[in-house]
Structure formats: structure tokens, C-alpha cells
Amino acid sequence: MPNNFTDKANFIWNVADDVLRGTFKAHEYGDVILPFVVLRRLDAVLEAKKDDVIAGYDQFKGMLDEERLVPVLKQAAGGTNFYNHSLFDLRRLAQDAGNVELNFNNYINGYSKNVRDIIENFQLVKVVEKLVKNDLLFLLVEKFAEVDLSPAKVTNHEMGYIFEELLRRFSEMSNETAGEHYTPREVIRLMVSLMFAEHRDELLGAGIIRSVYDPACGTGGMLITAKDYIQAEINPNVEIVMYGQELNEQTYAIAKSDVLIMGENAENIRQGNSFTQDKFKGQQFSYMLSNPPFGVSWKKEEAFIENEANDPHGRFSAGTPRSSDGALMFLQHMISKMEAGGSRIAIIFNGSPLFTGDAGSGESNIRKWIIENDWLEAVIAMPTEMFYNTGIATYIWMVTNRKPNHRKGKVQLINSVNLYESLLKNLGSKRKRFSDSHIEQITEIYSRFVKSENCLILDNADLGYTKVTVERPIYNKKGKIETDKQGQPKPDSSLRDFEKIPLKVDIDAYFEREVKPNVPDAWMDRSKDKVGYEISFTKYFYEYQPLRSLAEIKADILKLEAETDGLLGEILE
What we know:
alpha/beta, 4 domains, nine-stranded mixed β-sheet, 21 helices, 15% strand
């Protein structure tokens, strides 16, 4: 992780603590600081051409309306996708304490329309009003004028780390939902490495254009990392068009500003709920990556989602998970955007989408739909404590509608829980990270596609089972079986049981072998059969831990007793 990241993030954090303490509540710090970080970064990008833009504006403002001024001022700004024609930036604002409020408003209004949209989503007007009321605006401007966030000093990757670290700290102070907003960059690099491990040749050559999409893009880290990886590691001439949607206004504003600074089309970053406000309806994408929030409820959107689920052509027609966890719906949404010629998806989940829900449940039906369509390519189990604000187990799912021939009908499971290095200093809940060598090692396991200690190659059917209903009869007081009008035994619902029988196992043979010897009067009601799918890493990668010997346990007990007696003696003395 870059040293530059740590110094800048600490400086900005200290500004928040020094200036805002006592006036703003701790959970409000992010609402104030993050927009100022963005403004300082924008200033730094525009600084070299600032006076040229002012001159161009003064020359043409009386002749051209705002729309016709845009290309003129963009050119004056050096070809950037944004500009600021006011006389001010944060450094110049810091030279006039007496007029800071008036000048600050002039400064904000001088930005191009796309930046004003970013500022509006930060709800900066309310923030500035409170800063002015408490005589803090000039002090904050003065502090931020000191930090150099120019691209020459801080790369886009380092800016990503700065945003992630600040968001992590602010999220901890406001108890944000686990996993929300950001993903460690080395985890994204692993996702991207896996996505292209067997498909690099498709990106070689000239005139290639590919799209990358994230329906829960947070600060845009996945999109930017994917683009950088393709152009740095595979082909610098590939044109990568980034698309993202984000619900949270603040992180949406950060993502849009980052994309804007990179010279990309920031209008492809859009704000809204991907389930109920699909801002890319009808569009399809080459590559999709996402880390949707873990365990987030979709109860508020239930009516809309259930209505679409009832549409056989809707995104959620395969089923809906329980309303307390909408993670699998993000994957359904992404699958709906796969290109007919083939797309690839990498998505991060916690353990719930792997196994939650019995046969016939929404979760199981979604897994069934994905696996029986042969879209699930691989699942990679990552170490715990990889994320900034949750230590839970996490998994990368690789999903595609263009499996190579050797992967067709197969699912690869990779257990990488022991491949990590410990951080010298914890970052919230994050205590572990992938090194470059770990990413290479996991990618090599994936590409080799050979069974090993930490890799299994399963048939799709290995993940499925039939849930069979096993009935037993009602006995009357005389101990005889009660029957219905057709002479068939009446089932006793209190004795009803179920068997999960793997799809590859003959059900009748299983019943005769495993059930009949124990309950000879039982029978199967095959009309109630349900097929389910689940993915259990514990089942496939369980490592037996031998029990400790009695001698070891006895030695530990005697040692503990001796220590307790010694401590008690010291207290009594």
C-alpha cells in the first residue's frame, strides 16, 4: 500500500478532528470532509490551466451561452472534461478571510455542470451554511489549501486508497453496514486477474472496445482497477468504457469525480437503486464486477421486485431471496445484462448465498437456475478479516455465459483461506491482505484447473440434491395402520421426515439402503420432490483436527490449578 496514502489520509483525518470537533458530531465528519477532498483534487488537476480558463470565460461569456461555452472552456482547461471559470480555488480562497463565504459560493458556481452535480449530491450547501454559522469555513479552506493532491504527487490509485481509508474511519464512527462502499484494492486485483486469466487473447489487437459495469460501484474502485489492469497488463490500446450505478449519494459523488478526473465520461456513473431504478435498462456489458452490500434488506422495494419476479422475462423470475438479504438479486441483475456473445462476471458474497435456503426456497432456486444454465464457473473462498469493517468469510463467484470447453458442465472450488499475509497494523477489521504472489498463486490454481489440496473440480450435478419426503403411517389404538378410501396408508404428519439425496444417487436404491432398514413401514411421497443446490466449502475442504490426548488435557488442568493457587496465595498475602 503506498506510503503517500497513509500520510495524506492521516493529514485529512487530523483536519477533521481539529476543525470539526465540538461543532459537528463524529458521524457527520464524512459529510464535511469528503466533498472538500474532492474539491481539492479537482483544483489540483485544473491548477496549471486555471488562468487560461478565466481568460477564455471573460472573452466569450458575453457572446456564448453556457452550453456553447462548455467546449471552449474544456479546451482552455487542457482538454479535461470539466473546468472552473471563477477567479478562485481553495488556495486563492485562503488569501481572503473576510470574504470567504461570498467567494466560496462564486467558486462553486464557477464549476462546469457535471461537477455541480457532484457537489449537489454531497449536499454541500447545508454543510457550508453550518461552517459559516460557526466561523469554520475559512479555517477548513485554509487547512485543505495546504494538502497537495495533484496527480503528479498522488496517483489515481493512491486517491482511491485515501477515499477508502477516510470512508472506513467515517463508517466506523457512524456504524455503517458491513462491507458497504469499498473493497480492498488487492481483492479487486484478484477478481480482475481471475476474470482475464484465460481470456487475455481476446483483448489483443487494435480497435478493441470493451465495457465494464458495476451495479453497486461505491467509489468506483472496481471499475478503475479493471480498466487499469487491462491497459497495463494486457493491451494499452484497448478502449475500456466504464459504467456504474450507486445508491449512496456521497460515494456516487466520489466515483463520478474520480472518473471525471481520469478524463472518462462521468455521465456513465449514475445515482439510484439498481433494483428499482435501473439506469442502464436494456444495456449489456462485456465485463461486470461488484461487491454488493452484505445482508442488506430489500423490504422497502418488495412490491416492485415481486412484481418483476412474476414476469417470466423479468430479472428476478428465477426466484427472490429472503427480504433481509438481497445479495443474490445483484447477481440476477448482472446476469440479465450479459451479452449474447458472452460476458464475464466476478462478484463478492458472504457465505449466505452459498447455502442459505432449502430446496424450493428463493435462494436455492436462484442457485439452481444459475448452475443448471451452466453459468457458475468457479467459487473462491477468501481468508476472513480481509475487509475494513467486517471479519466474516467472503467468496468470489465467477459467472459467465461463455465457458471454455474444458469448463463446461463443471464448477471449480478454490480454497484460498490460508493464502494471505498479516498487516503490520490493522485497518479496522482488516488484518490480512493478498500479496502479489498470492494473487498469482490463486490465479495459477484457477488456470491450471486440476484437482489439488485446495482445488476441486466438480460436475454441476455434484452441487445438487433431491429433497424427498418420507412418510410413516398412522397407527390406531389396536396398533394397526389406518388407511384411506383407496386402501393406502394414511401418513402421520408428526412422523414426516425428509432426505437430501445427491442428484447422482439413485433415489430408490438410496431409500432401500439407508431408510428402509431403520423404518420398515416408511414410504416416499415422490409428488413432493424438490431439487435444490448448495455449495458447502466445509463439506469439501474439511480438515480433521485430531482430539487432544487425555494426558495433554490433564497436564493443562494441573497447570491451571497451580497458577490459580499461586495467584490466590498472592492475594491472601
